[in-house]
Amino acid sequence: MGKFEYSLGLNELKSKELRLWQALIGEFLGNLILNFFACGACTQVEDSTFKALAFGLAIFMAITIVGHLSGGHVNPAVTVAMLVAGRISFLRAFFYIIFQCLGAISGTAAVRTLIDQDYYNGLGHTTLAPNITELQGLGIEFFLGFLLVLTVFGACDPHKPDSRYTAPLAIGMAVTLGHLGTIRYTGSSMNPARTVGTAFATGNWSAHWIYWVGPILGGVTAALLYTQILEAKPEPKTNEAAEKYRTHADEREMRKLESARDFA
């Protein structure tokens, strides 16, 4: 029963500590930052490179700010991938996704409220290009989720401790790369919550399902690939008994050499 409660996350609800609530607030703030600043950037120019940098920098900042509280998922696709990999409990994943969506809705709503509608320019909402089918869009979003989650797992691999110092930057660059490669075709969502925020603000839910199914399927595939094949191996632990024996043997040899030198 204890193992079941741990997997489900009931132990976290029973805990008197505030860690879960802090994590949920962190995920809310992370997505609010993403949608306010990155989607806000989309209202200003049509330049794809500018938008790509805006989203990458927003993710970099969000993870830097809240990563120590929640792990800095800031994306339901990352959260589901972590759940499949057994890194978080079911209830934590469920609440993360709710707060991620609420944060994204709040961020885009703030942009919509603070600027005149003449500047909306779509509020950064993700839509399919005219000649891109829903199936093609699904495939593109699949690879975007795949790229992002592979980067997350690679940057946060516990057996590669040095990479954790650059993890926020690496993940932000993955988001930038995804936008540079595909923003023209699907808007390069990579993040279901980010698209929920703009869909809610614009009232445009067209082909919305691909922005959930694509990144999540790509993320789950990446999680399974990384944990089963690509994950770094832990360094072998030294056999303490053998090490102790070797040390004593070396000491005995040293004493023999010293005795021989004294005799000579």
UniProtKB/TrEMBL annotation:
Its membrane topology: Multi-pass membrane protein
InterPro entries per the UniProt record, alphabetical: Aquaporin-like, Aquaporin_transptr, MIP, MIP_CS
Stretches for region Disordered: 237-264
Claim: Cell cycle is one of the keywords in the record: no
Keyword list, A-Z: Cell membrane, Membrane, Transmembrane, Transmembrane helix, Transport
Transmembrane intervals: 20-38, 50-72, 93-115, 135-155, 167-187, 207-227
Signal peptide from the UniProt entry: none
Main subcellular location of this protein, as a coarse class: membrane
Localisation per UniProt entry: Cell membrane
GO molecular function, one term: channel activity
Family: Belongs to the MIP/aquaporin (TC 1.A.8) family.
Protein name: Uncharacterized protein, isoform A
Organism field: Drosophila ananassae
Phylogenetic placement of the source organism: Eukaryota, Metazoa, Ecdysozoa, Arthropoda, Hexapoda
Gene this chain is encoded by: Dana\GF12555
